[in-house]
Design a protein that fits this description.
The protein is mainly α and 123 residues long. It contains 5 helices and no strands.
């Protein structure tokens, strides 16, 4: 009886989760980082390509409380360049690891961009 009541809600959440995962994977796994010629990609370009799908404007479409706003970064103890770079590299919970897709220099670049944007309230 309870399962029949919960089944439509569970199905909806499952379908939503699958669609989100497919969107995420199609953007990250099947498309290499675009070439920017001889120059290294900027933090903004890296963020737009790898992060904005979930974190547009410093938000978070997966978990509301895990935004990239300075207050949330401080609350979650990810408010330093080193902490952000480690999270980008290793991932955590729903956050994918990017250590196998980005070079250490790119991780530093995008981490610096995230911290600077957070300090400027993503404006």
């Amino acid at each position: 009886m309870i399962w029949k009541t919960l089944q439509p809600k569970c199905s909806h959440l499952l379908i939503q989760g699958i669609l989100l995962a497919l969107l995420f994977l199609s953007g990250l796994l099947f498309h290499p980082l675009p070439s920017y010629g001889e120059s290294a990609p900027t933090g903004e370009r890296l963020f737009t390509y790898y992060c904005a799908g979930c974190h547009a404007g410093g938000g978070n479409i997966v978990r509301r409380g895990k935004t990239l706003k300075l207050r949330a970064l401080e609350r979650n103890q990810v408010d330093t360049l080193e902490a952000i770079a480690e999270l980008v590299t290793k991932g955590k919970a729903n956050m994918s690891a990017f250590g196998d897709r980005l070079t250490p220099e790119q991780i530093q670049t995008v981490s610096r961009y995230v911290l600077e944007q957070a300090q400027n309230n993503w404006s």
